[in-house]
Amino acid sequence: MTKKKLSPAALVLLLAVLVVLAAFPFIFNSYLLQVAVYCGIYIMLAVSLNLLIGYTGIFSMGHVGFYCVGAYTSALLATKMGMPFIVCFLAGGLVAAFFGALVGFATLRLNDIFIAFATMGLGEIIRIVIQNATFTNGALGVTGIPMPEWFGRPMNRVEFYYMVLIIVVLLVFFTYRLVHSNTGRTWMTIRDDANAAASLGINVFRYKMQAMVISCFVAGLAGSLYATFVQYINASNFTISVSTNIIAMVAIGGMGTVSGPILGAVILQILPEAIRFLSNYRQLMFGAALVISIMFAPKGLVGLNWKRIKPIAKLCALFESKSGKEE
After folding, report:
1. Contact 246, 91 (CB under 8 A)
2. pTM of the entire structure?
3. How far apart (Å, rounded) are the C-alpha atoms in residues 181 and 171?
4. What angle do the packed helices 259-274 and 282-296 form, to 10 degrees?
5. Contacts of residue 244, Cβ cutoff 8 Å, sequence gap at least 6
6. Least crowded by CB within 10 Å, which of 49, 83, 96, 286?
7. Of 18, 34, 64, nearest in space to 270 by CA
8. Residue 325 in 3-state DSSP?
9. H-state helical runs in 193-256
10. Residue 27 class from Cβ within 10 Å (0-12 exposed, 13-18 middle, 19+ buried)?
11. Which residues of 57-75 are buried (b: 16+ CB within 10 A; e: fewer)?
12. What does DSSP assign to residue 120?
């Protein structure tokens, strides 16, 4: 095993990206700052779903359900019980992970296509139950969700952006370490051939459950951040179209890679904003982007030949592992 090292050009590029992200609130207006926060939240969702689809081979179409559970858990604890943000944030992840374990126990022994339909159905059931329950305020949603307290006062949006940025950086680092660990290599073995993995003595169901719980926990954390940032949530914010958008982000960026979902989430969040006059065709654009990606870049954007742009190639290669082994 040899350690990967950043080339000077890749190091400069990485530092430049970090500097731009740190200076973002001072360079761009408040609207673009809001888009950047949404990018961070969707990066969390795409990275978490990639643990299931890209690394473990579990095609879940109900990821939005756990995002919804995390958002509502955090919002209700904050508005009805006055809990501090850190409690709401962690509770959103833990409750989503609990529901993920329940869904995983019911579905992970099924074949792939049945898992996809079962998770899609269960995700929609979660949304419908929340939309009609009295303790969630039904169709009225939850309003007045407070921003986190910071030195005795509510955070402003710039401070919230930095908090999301730090969380995303920590998540990417955690994901990198996880997928390059024995657990990550075991997930990839199961993804490539579950029967062969079982014949080697691997408890396939246990490892799939592990991936499901971790993925849903991160989705719940993303839901908590979303609810806190927008300060109002409604079940209509968590439809099946959100799940398909997250799947598109993972597929277009590159399944089974660390950097792919980040790239896919950023592009598919920024692209609709750049061509806002076509907002009525947003879902059509997502579908077209997914089809084009499958036809011309089946391994996603990260899988394209970046040799002519060596710093980008080195930067992408730094995060990735081939065939589930360290290089």
Report:
1. no
2. 0.87
3. 15
4. 140
5. 61, 283, 286
6. 83
7. 34
8. strand
9. 194-199, 204-230, 240-253
10. exposed
11. bbbbbbbbbbbbbbbbbbb
12. H
| Residue entry with tokens 């970046």 | 306
Query: Which tokens belong to 308?
Result: 């002519």
DSSP symbols for 151-196: TTEE--HHHHHHHHHHHHHHHHHHHHHHHTSHHHHHHHHHHH-HHH
Task: Quote the tokens at residue 322.
Answer: 């081939």
Type of residue numbered 33: L
| Residue in this structure with the two tokens 């579908």, named with its chain if needed | 287
In the block, which residue shows the tokens 């050009």? Answer: 9
The distance of Cα 153 from the centroid of its chain, to the nearest Å, equals 29
Q: Chunked in runs of 10, what are the mean pLDDT values of the chain (327 residues)?
A: 56 78 86 91 95 91 92 94 93 95 88 83 87 84 89 88 94 92 93 89 92 96 95 89 88 86 88 67 70 70 60 57 41
Residue reference for tokens 């051939």: 193
